[in-house]
Amino acid sequence: MNLYTVNHSFHYELENLTRAFFPNEKIAVIPSATEPESLESPYILTTYADVMSVSVVFGDFSKTLTAPVGTDDDELSMATLLYKLLSELSGITLSWGLLTGVRPIKLFRRLCEQMGEASAEEYFLNSLLVSREKTQLAKVTCVNEQKILNLSQGDSFSLYISIPFCPTRCSYCSFVSQSVEKAKHLIAPYVDLLCKEITVTGQIARDIGLILETVYIGGGTPTTLEAPHLTQILNAVRDNFDMSTCREFTVEAGRPDTITEDKLVALLEGGCDRLSVNPQTLSDEVLQNIGRRHTVEDFYRSFELARKVGFKHINTDLIAGLPGDTPDSFRKTIEGICALSPESVTVHTLSMKRSSRLTEENMQIMREDTQAVSQMLSTAYKALENEGLAPYYLYRQSRMVGNMENTGWSKKGYEGLYNVYIMDETHTILACGAGAVTKLRDPYSDRIERIFNFKYPYEYNARQEELISRKDAVAPFYKSLVQGGDNKNV
Questions:
Q1: Residue 485 falls within a domain, yes or no?
Q2: Per-residue pLDDT, 360
Q3: Rounded to an integer, what distance in angstroms lies between the CA atom of residue 79 and that of residue 101?
Q4: Weakly modelled stretches of the chain, pLDDT under 50
Q5: Residue 398 lies in a domain
Q6: Are 332 and 428 members of one domain?
Q7: What is the reported pTM?
């Protein structure tokens, strides 16, 4: 589909909004100073002159809407016109309305600070066309999230460690990870070099005087590694960082087929106090559809084993909208999870990432999928609320089914702090490992600088010295921070 933007620069938001309705459609943005002479269907034509105009031509559908220019927010007005046309064309009403960004809670909080909670709520409902249900979800999540944000100070930071290996690649996944079958020979040298990077990073944090808030080991699937390698990494963390200030230490165990008692003992003894065991679904048929080799029984075994070993905080991840899943089977998944009484649950919506196998196989997102996922999320939220869990963080991704959201729920006192800090961009994240991205956060402004590690394990192993040298940028960043016009080291 071609998206023509004539005489205006609103292309970014209009492209994202179009993709919200058609996540698998290839959208080509064509800027122009004047209206093109010939247009081939399907297309969207947006023009800005004496009036703004949006036309959508798709099959038998052909319609144009106009609005006056010079309003308080012309970009919002044009997006509203496009939304109305695409909603009429598709028969879909997006629950998040015009919002396409990753961090709606951050936006809601900023609006609350600027205009008060009541006016922010009204703006979400009437100007951004967000549904009442999602507006209320944003409101509650914002309140719960703020309590976590208040824990962070100007000299706070979190540590992220990447383990980019998995037993197999799930069909919906686009993360940089390699199956153990192909990359087993890389693991031992990777762990050694990772511990070297952790050592260097710990020294940087000490030299600057940063305070560690949380540690998160993710991937990939960290428990793809054997227990001795896990112990080696955990020892490197404890030896090089002051853990006395650390509020939370998460390991994303993830795949039940990688979890064994010796690994769980190694994690617990190594300081991990929050474990994520992620079934994604409690349907063996759906697990098979997405390329997972474990069964539902494997998940139950892993969860019970984690309890037996001594984990007091277990999180589980679920995904709504997986191929072959239905509102009824997803309801059974939620009931099964609630029966285990996990301390926290993250409910994701399927995101059709470009590099995932599902996208490569041209899985289409239709109106029925949007309706089904909406029902799945409503069912999950009601069940979790009834179990005493509350939403504490929320984020969104591009190409999500129905343009929905991912939401973390927890019992009181069991919120995943790192999840909030990374999504809100609250403080610096020092990151180690292949594919990891260090984010340096200026506590006196919204400025963020990024330091990228090499994506793939073989690059990481081969170019370690070059990678380590990139962290030389951390100290100068902090030395340059300005508060009230004076240079100040944090």
A1: no
A2: 40
A3: 14
A4: 172, 174-176, 354-365, 484-490
A5: yes
A6: yes
A7: 0.91
